[in-house]
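Quick one:
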Amino acid sequence: MTDGAKLVLKSANFDPNVVNMLPINEATAAVVRDAIAKADQTEESVAEGARIEPRTWQRRIQGRTAFRVNELSRISAVLGVKMATLLTAISETVSQGSAKR
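Output:
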């Protein structure tokens, strides 16, 4: 990270200890849960198919930590949905959540 980037993050009151509380984690988890339900699959089968360890899956699906892009890619493959569809839904969900605040 450059000094300029540090300055911007500090000036925006960025706290790296609360990154897992950003709405995008919750939005992503909600979209993934919805996609699983629409595909009529279980969280367990999707986590297994996407090769995500159970403890890691629980943190991700509860919105406590962010899904990684490669995980979302594997999840979309398991569910048979396009990655772009997931990302669009996540973006829309975040936008809707911000509007409610």
